[in-house]
Prior knowledge:
- This protein is an alpha+beta fold.
- It has one domain: Peptide deformylase (Peptide Deformylase, Alpha-Beta Complex).
- It contains 4 helices and 8 strands.
- The strands form 2 sheets. Strands 1-2-3-6-7 form a 5-stranded antiparallel β-sheet, with helices on both faces. Strands 4-5-8 form a 3-stranded antiparallel β-sheet.
- The chain is globular and about 40 Å long.
- The two termini are about 15 Å apart.
- About 35% of the residues are buried.
- Zinc ion (ZN) binds near residues 91, 93, 137 and 159.
Amino acid sequence: xxxxxxxxxxxxxxxxxxxxxxxxxxxxxxxxxxxxxxxxxxxxxxxxxxxxxxxxxxxxxxxxxxxxxxxxxxxxxxxxxxxxxxxxxxxxxxxxxxxxxxxxxxxxxxxxxxxxxxxxxxxxxxxxxxxxxxxxxxxxxxxxxxxxxxxxxxxxxxx
Length: 159
Ligand SMILES: [Zn+2]
């Protein structure tokens, strides 16, 4: 499956659109989509992937951090710290570019699982950063929009 890139005009247009809430998380097609997203993320050594990065207009992202796997349907950040951290980020949809991006140090994020059950996760540091990056994707926002500085690199760590 192809990952959309901002260096393609049509792809960028799609990536800049806000995704739609999933009405029925129990739909088998949603499970299939999440499986596909996990595979694409792993194949590309990403730490997160939003559905619109593979051309699907739904409010879903997956993430992987320290051997923990996450899947959020209809995610929403409901709380965040005042404290902000700066760190480097990259993105599978923005190849060969990294940037220093401010993100909240701590967040509380809620979402739905495949059984349409609501769950909440408290995250800090790198995991909070990944969740903020992916939630932004679903709102049509890219890390380059928020980056203080951007650099070109030969190959980047992706998320
Ligand atoms: Zn990204």
